[in-house]
Amino acid sequence: MISIIKFKDLSLKLKLYLCIALFVLLPLILMGFYLNYQFAELNEKKTYDTVLETLKQTRQNFDSIITDTDDKSKRIVANQLIQDFANGKYSKKKDYDKIYWDINNWLDEILGSRQNYKSISLYSTQEVIFEKGMQVSELDPSVMERALSLKGKGFWVTSSGEIEYYRGIMDLNKYGKMIGIERFNLDEEKIYQFFKGVKSYDNAHIYLLDSKGIILSSTDRGEIGSNFKKLVPIQKGFSQEEGFVKTLFDERANVAFFYTINETNWRLIQVIPETSFSMLRRTINLILLITILLCVSFGLLFSFVQHKYLLRPLQKLRREMMKLKSGNFNIQLEVDSKDEIGEISNGFMRTVTQLKETIDDVYIGKIKQREAELKALEAQINPHFLYNTLDSIHWLALKEKNYEVSEQIEALAEIFRHVLNKGESFITIRQEISFLENYMFIQKRKYGKRIKLNINVDQVLMDCKMPKLVLQPLVENAIVHGLEPIVEGGNIEVSITRVPQGVLFTVSDNGTGTDESRIHQMMTDQKEAKNVFALKNIDERIKINYGPEYGLHFTSTYQVGTQVKVYIPMIK
User: Fold this and answer.
1) Distance CA 219, CA 276 (A)
2) pTM check: above 0.85
């Protein structure tokens, strides 16, 4: 608890440095060492697996020659010509020679182009009766005994530098009687070709061993046929049919990759110095060291940047805030950035300025508010006075039987009453239309038949509420700016319809039209707003009452006309 309190009391600068060291650099270094170890182990395992898979690609070649040898030996046993030859069923030397060459030609056919054998020999139970290829030695008696015991099953025999396959030739007419032995001598050079190209690492060696540890073939050509003593420690590590083991070889650390050829129990072994794989580990360690140094360097650079652009501005802001705390409004804070600290500083400056202005203007504001209330009362008194005066003139005109003047004054009085509306800002659509009709009654005395007004209203909407004085200013604009300049006058169409947004008021005329973009510019420019006072007033009142999604939309085209649409929600 004490340590936490002390940390909380440290300066922001020290907190920043400690956080960078404890929560950035230290975890990064620890994670780097851990990932380096894991990645090196994983990559080593993956590399070893890849080397083993590459070595195992030779398995198909060994399986192919073993299967092919077994298949050919079976065909030889089943051949009737060889059965007769082994049984000695020929009477003359001429017959012997003929059968001999028939066998030779038949073997050429089954061997085809794949000459993987140094020789193929046939033995009777006593001597060689047929040889194809190099001359072979006499049979070992143990081979004869084994062939007899296996009763026609093939088997491999390996000795110093020799790879041989034997199968007893059983008499097909007498069960269990062996009449001869066939012998295949594999060509070691052909075996060597299977794995010669696999040697892809410096100082790597490949050995083909039989079950006794004799080297049948090797990339070290001088070791063939020997019982290689150096492979004994490696063979002790073999506990599976395939895999890899780390061991000493030539007094150096090596990795031995191997797999077993199941049919023969031979092993193909590739021995690669462990240093061949250490280059990647050294590279990873170098990358880790460079990364740590870069992190430390960037951590220091980060600290410098944070001090200059974060801590120093905060310290300045703190000093000025302490001034305000003591009641000193003489704040001097230079802000030259637009980041969050710059925004906070600017906000602080604006707050100080507004606070000072509020303190200075609070009494003046109260006085102005009182004056505005008085003016509002006066504004209500003047229309009442005018309404009462017009009513008196109306009755005087009736008394004098001046009915035309009486009607005009009555319509004007209705207009004033509509404007007053007992101080209410909202009326029904029915009342707004009545007000518009009274206004047009007066205008027709001036324009006669030049101006025609058509009003189309959805009767369902007649009792809906709306702000007063929306349609009359729009119709007045249409008359003054659109139709009055035209000698023959024109038409004004007023429609009130229901739309998804609520209620749509549309006022259209076929007057002179105007510059639509100019009108929009004046509505957004405070200095020129007085030139479109009626439009802006209607738009602002509606937005204030209902929100920014409602309001006025103005379109106009020269010599075609003008259309104004006003949207409000439907409220009953």
Assistant:
1) 18
2) no
